[in-house]
Structure formats: C-alpha cells, structure tokens
C-alpha cells in the first residue's frame, strides 16, 4: 500500500531507529507498512531532511524512467530496515546481534562510506554524502552510517529500547533521567496500554475497585 500524506516519526532519536520505525506493529499480525512505494521512501528522505526537494524531484523522475531499478531499491531498503530492527532489538534486550544482519549492514556501509565527503558549513566541518540524480539509494547511505555510529561510538547504545506495547515494536533511545521510559510515545502506546489495563480491571471487578 502507499502512504500518501503520511507524516513519518522522528521518535527514535537516531536516524537508523527512525528508519526502522517506518513500519508499525512489527510484532503484530498486521504490520502497518509505510514504505509501500519508492515515492514513500523519497517522502521519508525529504521529511527527515536527507534529501532536498530538488533532489527528490530528480530521483522521482529517474524512478519513473527506471521502475525496475526503483523497485529493487525499495526492496533493498526494506531488507536493510529488517536487519536494523533485528540488530537493535537484540541490543535492547541485551542479546548478541545476529551476524547475518550485521553482515547486511556492512554491505550497505560498503556502498555508503565511499560517498562521504567533508563539507564546510560556516565555521563547522561536517560529513555529507555526494550523490547524483541517478542514485536512487542516496537516502540509505546516512541510515547505514547512523547505525554504525550508534553501534560503535555512541554512548546512547545502552539506552536503546523497544516499545513495551505488545503490538508496536518501535525502537527509541531512552533519554529519561532514570532510564525508565517504556513506550515509544506515552500519548499513543502508553495511553492505549493504560486503557487496556483499566478495561481488564473493570471487567474483572464491575465495582471498579482493586
């Protein structure tokens, strides 16, 4: 399915986690796919400021000229997303990340890292990625770099969490002071969990007492 008009979340706190969260209800029977088409992938890249509007238009035109290549790029994006999800859910549960998924990330890094260039913005030097109008996978490169940085050098790696909802599966960096955050969003999954607990209490005790 397509997701025209969908607003992608930045709740993960790191780009690679936000990318993993482009599918909802990972662990439920009916996942909510928000990358149904290559245009959706472009929309995600734009919304997360990875590609400017002009580049997105060029890539959209290239995708129309080469639909098979665009479809292959989308499939590759979903494969990477699945690998990242498994790697970081393992991290969140203090388990060893699957070797096959780390290998998948390494293959993406092999494509991404040679495209990196130092860029001077005002008085600051930062990393950027050099891409052209035919690089349909350009938005995947910073995702791979983000994952590598989080795994190897980011002190936040110990605060990667998976939403406690049994139907969500979104990943995030817990920035709470005591490291006790359980939900991707208290206003969403947190409130639904509270409502379910309330319903079960009411059903078990019509008077509403404990």
What descriptive keywords fit this protein?
210 residues, mainly alpha, 7 helices
3D structure, described in words:
- The chain is mostly helical and 210 residues long.
- It has a domain at 15-157.
- The chain has helices at residues 15-20, 38-47, 53-65, 67-92, 99-112, 140-152, 186-204, and strands at 23-24, 32-33, 116-121, 124-129, 160-162, 171-173.
- Helix 2 packs antiparallel against helix 3, helix 4 crosses helix 5 (99-112) and helix 5 (99-112) crosses helix 6 (140-152).
Radius of gyration: 19 Å
Strand order of the largest sheet: 1-2
Instruction: Report mean pLDDT, rounded to a whole number.
Output: 88
Indicate the overall shape: globular
Number of H/I helices:
7
Q: Could you tell me the number of beta strands? A: 6
Derived from helix and strand composition plus strand pairing, the structural class reads mainly alpha
**Amino- and carboxy-terminal Cα gap:** 44 Å
What's the assembly state of these chains?
Answer: single chain
Brief rundown of the structure:
This protein has 210 residues and is mainly α. It is 48% helix and 10% strand. The protein has a domain at 15-157.
């Amino acid at each position: 399915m397509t997701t025209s008009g969908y607003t992608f979340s930045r709740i993960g706190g790191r780009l690679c986690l936000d990318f993993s969260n482009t599918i909802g209800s990972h662990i439920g029977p009916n996942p909510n796919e928000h990358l149904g088409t290559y245009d959706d992938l472009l929309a995600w890249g734009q919304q997360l400021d990875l590609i400017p509007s002009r580049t997105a238009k060029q890539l959209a035109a290239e995708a129309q000229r080469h639909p098979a290549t665009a479809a292959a790029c989308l499939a590759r994006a979903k494969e990477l997303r699945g690998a990242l999800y498994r790697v970081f859910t393992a991290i969140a549960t203090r388990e060893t990340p699957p070797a096959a998924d780390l290998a998948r990330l390494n293959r993406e890094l092999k494509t991404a890292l040679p495209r990196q260039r130092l860029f001077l913005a005002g008085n600051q030097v930062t990393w950027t990625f050099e891409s052209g109008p035919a690089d349909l996978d350009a938005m995947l490169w910073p995702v791979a770099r983000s994952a590598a940085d989080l795994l190897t050098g980011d002190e936040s790696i110990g605060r990667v969490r998976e939403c406690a909802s049994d139907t969500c599966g979104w990943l995030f960096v817990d920035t709470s002071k005591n490291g006790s955050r359980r939900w991707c969003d208290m206003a969403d999954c947190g409130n639904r969990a509270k409502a379910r607990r309330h319903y079960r209490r009411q059903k078990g005790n019509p008077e509403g007492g404990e």
